[in-house]
Write a structure and sequence with these properties.
binds uridine-5'-diphosphate; 7 helices; binds magnesium ion; Alpha-Beta Plaits
Length: 141
């Protein structure tokens, strides 16, 4: 079943006290939360999580930001979860995000854009496994 995705409420949104509002968006959009916890990544962890972006011009800024403060990491369940969550969060650049999306309403900038969403089912499984053990995940089909 391709019904899981991985989300992060990024350090800007946690700092701006949007965690509760974003949890409401998650639940209102019909996602089940399979696991959630607060983490403060080291720079090395952020570099590992975003290793696909190694070498890109924004890599240093991105990994420094993602390790600059605590964030919430979540495993989410919904039918067609990857696409459904990306639709809920909106475009990477909040100035391109459509009305009613999380990034439109809560992002600070292109870099500090409030939330992360997996870009494929395969990456969702890898990203969930990066942060959660089997014992931490609600078991579901
Ligand atoms: N990012 C950035 N500048 C860019 C592109 C991306 O700072 O030109 C940051 C932004 O925080 C984004 C993250 O790097 O969310 C990962 O980029 P990606 O293209 O994977 O966007 P996403 O999948 O998060 O929408
Ligand atoms: Mg991405």
């Amino acid at each position: 079943m391709r019904n899981k995705t991985f989300a992060i409420i990024k350090p800007d949104a946690v700092k701006n006290k949007y965690t509760g509002k974003i949890y409401d968006r998650i639940l209102d959009a019909g996602f089940e939360i399979l696991a959630a916890k607060k983490v403060h990544m080291t720079l090395e962890q952020a570099e590992g999580f975003y290793s696909v972006h190694t070498g890109k011009p924004f890599f240093a800024e991105l990994t420094e930001f993602m390790s600059s403060g605590p964030c919430m990491v979540l495993a989410l369940k919904k039918e067609n979860a990857v696409d459904a969550w990306r639709e809920t969060i909106g475009a990477t650049n909040p100035s391109d995000a459509t009305d009613g999306t999380i990034r439109k309403d809560y992002a600070t900038s292109l870099g500090q854009n409030a939330v992360h969403g997996s870009d494929s089912h395969e990456n969702a499984i890898l990203e969930i496994g990066f942060f959660f053990s089997q014992a931490e995940l609600i078991q579901t089909q």
